[in-house]
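Recap quiz, item 2
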Amino acid sequence: MQFIDLQAQYRALKTEIDSNIRDVLDTAQYIGGPFIRELEERLAAFAGRRYCITCANGTDALQAAFMALGIGAGDAVFCSDVTFVASTEPAYMLGATPVFCDIEPDTYNLSAASLARQIEAVLAEGRLTPKAVVAPDIFGNPCDYDAILPVCEKYGLSLIEDAAQSFGASYRGKRCGSFGVISTTSFFPAKPLGCYGDGGAIFVDDDALDGLLRSLCVHGKGPGGKYGNIRVGMNSRLDAIQAAVLLPKLRALEEYELRVRQTVADRYGAAFAGRLVTPFVAENCISAYAQYVLLAEDSAQRARILAHLSEKQIPHMIYYPAPQHALPVFRDVPQYREDFRSADDCCARCFSLPMHPYLEEETQEQIIRTVLEAL
Ligand SMILES: *Cc1c(COP(=O)(O)O)cnc(C)c1O
């Protein structure tokens, strides 16, 4: 049994993926070219944005976003405490200070109330300039943008949506990848839309930002091209082979994978309701279920469940074992006054079960039975 069965997906899409890869090999257009152009158009249309700029991975997408917004030393970048380190790592590398905020106890996403408190704390101290907010749609579940956007507006902060886990999800009829001034995503193989290696993309509506990001991703190229450099940039491009792989996968995501992910989540939800804390998806929202995350009663019960799953050879993971504020890499970063009650609680009790659109009902029943045995 696989935690995420990428081989089953490849079997389903093999003819088209193989033929696309062969096209790249036959034409030797490994960088840029028609697959990249088509993918950027299709991704932008899917997300509901004017522009999509593909790049080498989701972390680079965030780094380019921070660079485009001029984020650096002396700036505060606010982010949810429950995420992958890449949400703020590039800002930290650029000299900015990540300021973590507690999460909503039901969706595990950035809490707008905690965000407002942390902005006030930074302003009261007067050492850093509040600059941007990174909102990861964690586990594929969209953030509450109707609560977060007014806070960003009130304090004049730029919102970056980290849609690495939520490509395909939507919030009140609007797709993830369309929130904030810049959205980013990742095509790491395990994400809802993954390629066969590393890949990422940036989404914007603004012409100037599109141009700036395209320059930043190719060595700060200017109108004179890659040898007429006008700023310090990165070398961050998506390979044409990855675009060739992503095109059929994007179609599958749209045509059936999101629907099947929902079916799988519904089966888990029905089986575990009242026994474990099941994922909460707000009204008019659709999760991409990058992960299916449950909360046990406490960490002791979680340990018992996971030990039983291991014994029965059922794959499982803990996303995430520690909140960001507790990571050694951020030990010198001031944490202000927030207590991270919901983030600490989530990390102490959460665990994830196999979740992908090729999970057969029979296999899922076996997973469910094994979890219930452990309770
Ligand atoms: C995976 C992930 C990233 C980084 O993406 P890479 O393509 O692995 O660099 C950023 N943010 C979140 C929330 C992620 O899950």
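The longest strand covers residues 129-136.
The pocket of pyridoxal-5'-phosphate is lined by residues 57-59, 83-84, 86-87, 136, 162, 164-165, 186, 188, 198, 200 (CB under 6 Å).
End of item.
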